[in-house]
Write a structure and sequence with these properties.
This protein has 183 residues and is mostly beta strands. The protein is built from no helices and 15 strands. It is globular and about 50 Å long.
Length: 183
């Protein structure tokens, strides 16, 4: 109970171990075994590879492919192996409408990634989520002021359900939006 200072997310491995993003003050990811015993941790405050400015969300990729961390204030996604070794990062395309602070991340069973992004609160033109393929290319985006899409202004978390439905939680509007996948 004394490990954290404002943790932001938890992700479980198939062996029962779990990872915690300890974001607002400690700027790290901590790893625990299935019994809650500390295994390891990585990260520090900063913008270098492997450092964080508010690790806000995380997800374990299927088949042990790594730990993804939404590094919110660095406006990037970082991928690590299970031991915390940096593998790669994604920060979007410079000045694109879909680029901004990455608040959250989830993955589906097919390997697509879903990132909740917002540049600033109430900025509907730069708030929504993007879907990335296995090569981390944007294959779809929802929101960002596009006509016909839901209007988001404070995306805070995202989850992909077993049926592929996408759930987007917002803090300012106090709602959860459920989107059905296109078949």
């Amino acid at each position: 109970k004394t490990h954290f200072n404002q943790p932001t997310d938890v992700a479980f491995g198939s062996d029962g171990s779990f990872y915690v993003s300890d974001g607002y003050v400690n700027s790290r990811v901590a790893h625990f075994d299935r019994n809650g015993n500390w295994r390891s941790e990585w990260g520090k405050k900063g913008s270098a590879e492997g450092a964080f400015l508010n690790p806000h969300g995380l997800v374990l990729l299927p088949r042990g492919a790594g730990v993804l961390v939404a590094d919110r204030e660095n406006s990037r996604l970082q991928l690590f192996d299970a031991r915390g070794r940096f593998k790669r990062q994604w920060a979007g395309e410079k000045d694109a409408q879909t680029t901004g602070r990455i608040f959250c991340v989830d993955a589906d069973s097919a390997g697509f990634l879903y990132l909740g992004i917002r540049r600033a609160d109430y900025d509907v033109e730069h708030t929504g989520f993007v879907k990335l393929d296995r090569n981390w290319n944007i294959v779809d985006s929802v929101g960002f002021g596009k006509s016909g899409d839901p209007r988001f202004n404070a995306v805070h978390d995202i989850a992909v359900g077993p049926d592929g439905s996408i759930y987007v939680a917002e803090t300012r509007t106090k709602r959860v939006v459920k989107l059905r996948p296109v078949q």
